[in-house]
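Tokens for chain A. Residues wanted.
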């Protein structure tokens, strides 16, 4: 449980500097706005009884977009700030291995993201007081959002481990996530067969079934493997200091 000291340290930094409060506020404002506008649009132009296949799909696709906007701002400081302030060398003097550091930082960031998403449950709970609906589809959407967010966090951690500039870290993470988003957009340029292969590696395409209320075990495994892949890259990035002569 050595990673717990890093986990607690990161939470103190997040809440002590109002980073968590400001990003949570922005997250809730944006998700609340999208839920409200989706519900109004659905009520005006759709069949309100068909809530499963319409409102939730629109809402969770919007929630996916908000997650992509917020998480790079949450992950940009994880290693970049430590490098800039020189505290990363101090951290390496502790009886901690690199996996402990990575796991502690990842779990702290994931905890804040999980808290953000949990707070948005207020929206469907409020809707349930006026309209009955099955909870299966929205819970599937929330599961997909959590898995997608975990992958985004691991991706942001890896980028942050490569630089000591937080702005560069955030913008590079945005660039990588947008790449995954646009991966399957240009079908005319690369052909349908290539698109079919690339869609298997698209984080955003993999999220589609969750948004529709469908839980596919292959998609769950994919997001878990992608999260582990970026955490492994982060580990390799930290361990590169050994052959660079940094202790």
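Reply:
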């Amino acid at each position: 449980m050595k990673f717990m000291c890093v986990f607690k340290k990161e939470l103190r930094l997040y809440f002590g500097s109002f980073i968590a409060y400001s990003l949570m506020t922005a997250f809730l404002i944006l998700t609340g706005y999208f839920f409200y506008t989706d519900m109004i649009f659905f009520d005006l132009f759709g069949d309100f009884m068909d809530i499963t296949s319409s409102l939730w799909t629109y809402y969770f696709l919007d929630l996916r977009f908000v997650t992509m906007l917020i998480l790079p701002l949450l992950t940009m400081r994880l290693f970049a700030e430590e490098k800039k302030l020189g505290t990363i060398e101090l951290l390496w003097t502790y009886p901690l291995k690199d996996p402990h550091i990575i796991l502690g930082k990842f779990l702290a960031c994931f905890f804040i993201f999980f808290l953000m998403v949990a707070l948005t449950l207020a929206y469907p709970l409020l809707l349930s007081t006026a309209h009955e609906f099955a909870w299966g589809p929205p819970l599937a959407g929330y599961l997909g959002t959590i898995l997608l967010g975990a992958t985004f966090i691991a991706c942001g951690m890896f980028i942050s481990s490569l630089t000591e500039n937080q702005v560069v870290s955030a913008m590079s993470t945005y660039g990588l996530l947008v790449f995954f988003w646009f991966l399957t957009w240009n079908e005319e340029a690369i052909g349908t067969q290539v698109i079919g292969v690339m869609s298997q590696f698209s984080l955003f395409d993999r999220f589609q079934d969750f948004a529709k209320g469908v839980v596919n075990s292959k998609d769950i495994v994919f997001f878990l493997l992608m999260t582990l892949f970026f955490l492994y890259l982060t580990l390799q990035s930290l361990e590169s200091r050994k052959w660079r002569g940094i202790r």
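The chain has a mean pLDDT of 84. Residues 3-242 form one domain.
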